[in-house]
C-alpha cells in the first residue's frame, strides 16, 4: 500500500511529460499520437481516483475516437503542413500564451483554494437510486436527473456529423463517404477485422447493460460498437453506407426521437417532461438507452468515415 | 500454500516487469523500425503473459481469472496485428527490407 503514492506520483509526471511532448512535437502526426497516449494515461488517472465511468469515457472518446479523427485529419492535411522551421507570428504566440496562463491560473485557484465544505450533490444523487431501479449514480445523473442534457448531447453529435458532411463537394451529396478504399493486401488487418467484432459487439452491449449498476454506459458501449464497425470498414470488409440512405438517417435520429417521445409521454404517465413513472422506470430507461447507443455508434462511425466524396455508384 | 502462491505471484510479475523494461530499452536503443518492433512485441507477449500468469493465483473468483486470461488474449491479438501492420508500413516506406 505504501507504494501507491509513488505510483500516482510517477503517473502524474508521465501525464505532464506526455502533454509537454505533445505540445512541442514538430509533426502533426507525432502530436496526435502523443495526444492518444495522453488520453489513455488520463484514463488511468480517472480510474485511480475511483471515477471508473469517466475513465472509460476518457479512454474511449478522448483517446480512441478523437484520436482516430485527428489521425485522419493529420493524414489529409499532410500535404499542406508547414515546414518544421516555420513558426506562427509573434502576436499569435503571445495571445495563446495569455489564454493558456488564464486557464492555468483559474485551475490553480480552484485546486488550491477549495470552498469548505466542498460542494457535493453525491448524497442527493444516491438518495433516489432505488426509485429509479438503478445502482450506478452516474447513470442516474445522465439518464434521469439531467436527461435533457444527455438528449441535447445527441443533437450536438448530429450537428457535428452534418458539419463533417458539409465539407464534401456538392455533386457527391448523398453519396459514399471517404475515398475509394485501397485494395486490401494487409491480411493481418483483415484477420483482426474478422476476429475482433464478435467479441467487441458483445462487450459493447455488456457496457450498456451493466451501466445500470456498474461503470459503463450508452456512450462507452456505443463507442466500442462504432470501433468494431470502423475496423470492418477500414479492412474493406464492409463498405460505408451512402449518407443519403433513408434507413441510415432514421438510425441517426432514433436515439433523439425515442428520447423526445418518452419525454412527452412523461406528461401523460408521470406528470412532467422526461419524468419516469414510479411503476416501471427501468423499462423506460432501457427503451431510451438502446436506440441511443445505436445512434451514438452510427454517428461516431460516420464521423470517422468523413464527408461524401464518391457517387453512390462508384 | 498462500505463501507459496504469493511468492509465485511476486516472481512472475517481477519477471513480466523485467521484460517490459527490457522491451522499452530496446524500443529506445534499437536502430531501425523492425528491431524496435521486435523489442516491443517481446514485451507484449512475455511481459503481459507473465504478469497475468502471476496474477492468476490472486484471483478471488473463477470469473476474475477468466477475465484476466481474456485481457491477455486481447492484448496478444492487438499486439500481434498492430506489429504486423507497422512492419508492413515500414517495409513499404523503405521500399526494401531494413
Write the layout of secondary structure elements.
The complex is a heterodimer of chains A (314) and B (98).
Chain A: H1 4-24, H2 28-48, H3 52-77, H4 90-112, H5 122-127, H6 129-132, H7 137-145, H8 147-165, E1 176-177, H9 187-210, H10 218-234, H11 246-269, H12 281-305, E2 308-310
Antiparallel strand pairs in A: 1-2
Helix pairs in contact in A: 1-2, 2-3, 3-10, 7-8, 8-11, 8-12, 9-10, 10-12, 11-12
Chain B: H1 2-29, H2 33-55, H3 62-94
Helix pairs in contact in B: 1-2, 2-3
N- to C-terminal distance of chain A = 61 Å
Category from helices, strands and their pairing of chain A:
mainly alpha
Total helical segments of chain A: 12
Distance between the termini of chain B: 50 Å
> Main β-sheet of chain B, in a few words?
none
Mean residue pLDDT of chain A: 88
Percent in helix of chain A? 55-70%
Instruction: Please state the CA-atom Rg of chain B, rounded to the nearest Å.
Output: 16 Å
Low-pLDDT sequence parts of chain B = none
Number of H- or I-type helical stretches of chain B: 3
Number of strands of chain A: 2
The proportion of residues forming helix of chain B, as a percent range, comes to: over 70%
H/E element sequence of chain B: HHH
* Biggest sheet details of chain A: 2 strands, antiparallel
Average residue-wise pLDDT of chain B: 87
State the order of secondary-structure elements of chain A, H for helix, E for strand. HHHHHHHHEHHHHE
Uncertain runs of chain A are none
Class of secondary structure makeup of chain B: mainly alpha
User: What fraction of the residues of chain B are assigned to beta strands by DSSP?
Assistant: under 5%
Radius of gyration of chain A equals: 22 Å
Percent of residues of chain A in beta strands?
Answer: under 5%
Amino acid at each position: 500500500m505504501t507504494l501507491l503514492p509513488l505510483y500516482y506520483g510517477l503517473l502524474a509526471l508521465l501525464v505532464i511529460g506526455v502533454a509537454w511532448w505533445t505540445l512541442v512535437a514538430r509533426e502533426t502526426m507525432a502530436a496526435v499520437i502523443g495526444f492518444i497516449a495522453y488520453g489513455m494515461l488520463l484514463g488511468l488517472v480517472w480510474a485511480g481516483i475511483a471515477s471508473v465511468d469517466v475513465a472509460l469515457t476518457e479512454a474511449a472518446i478522448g483517446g480512441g475516437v478523437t484520436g482516430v479523427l485527428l489521425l485522419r485529419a493529420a493524414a489529409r492535411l499532410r500535404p499542406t503542413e508547414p515546414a518544421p522551421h516555420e513558426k506562427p507570428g509573434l502576436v499569435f504566440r503571445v495571445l495563446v500564451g495569455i489564454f493558456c496562463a488564464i486557464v492555468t491560473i483559474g485551475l490553480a485557484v480552484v485546486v488550491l483554494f477549495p470552498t469548505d465544505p466542498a460542494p457535493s450533490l453525491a448524497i442527493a444523487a444516491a438518495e433516489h437510486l432505488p426509485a429509479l431501479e438503478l445502482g450506478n449514480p452516474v447513470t442516474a445523473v445522465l439518464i434521469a436527473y439531467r436527461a435533457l442534457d444527455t438528449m441535447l448531447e445527441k443533437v450536438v453529435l448530429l450537428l457535428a456529423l452534418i458539419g463533417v458532411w458539409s465539407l464534401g463537394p456538392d455533386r457527391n451529396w448523398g453519396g459514399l463517404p471517404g475515398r475509394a478504399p485501397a485494395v486490401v493486401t494487409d491480411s493481418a488487418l483483415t484477420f483482426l477485422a474478422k476476429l475482433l467484432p464478435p467479441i467487441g459487439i458483445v462487450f459493447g452491449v455488456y457496457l450498456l447493460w451493466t451501466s445500470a449498476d456498474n461503470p459503463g454506459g450508452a456512450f462507452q458501449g456505443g463507442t466500442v460498437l462504432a470501433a468494431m464497425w470502423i475496423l470492418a470498414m477500414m479492412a474493406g470488409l464492409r463498405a460505408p453506407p451512402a449518407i443519403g440512405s433513408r434507413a441510415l438517417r432514421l438510425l441517426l435520429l432514433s436515439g433523439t426521437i425515442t428520447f423526445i417521445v418518452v419525454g412527452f409521454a412523461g406528461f401523460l404517465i408521470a406528470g412532467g417532461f422526461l419524468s419516469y413513472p414510479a411503476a416501471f422506470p427501468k423499462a423506460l430507461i432501457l427503451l431510451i438507452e438502446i436506440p441511443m447507443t445505436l445512434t451514438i455508434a452510427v454517428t461516431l462511425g460516420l464521423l470517422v468515415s468523413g464527408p461524401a466524396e464518391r457517387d453512390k455508384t462508384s | 500454500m498462500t505463501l507459496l502462491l504469493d511468492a509465485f505471484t511476486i516472481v512472475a510479475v517481477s519477471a513480466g516487469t523485467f521484460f517490459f523494461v527490457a522491451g522499452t530499452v530496446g524500443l529506445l536503443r534499437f536502430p531501425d523500425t523492425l528491431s524496435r518492433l521486435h523489442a516491443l512485441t517481446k514485451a507484449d507477449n512475455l511481459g503481459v503473459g507473465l504478469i497475468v500468469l502471476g496474477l492468476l493465483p490472486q484471483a478471488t473468483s473463477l470469473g476474475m481469472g477468466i477475465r484476466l486470461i481474456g485481457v491477455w488474449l486481447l492484448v496478444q491479438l492487438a499486439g500481434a496485428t498492430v506489429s504486423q501492420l507497422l512492419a508492413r508500413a515500414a517495409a513499404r516506406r523503405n521500399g526494401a527490407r531494413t
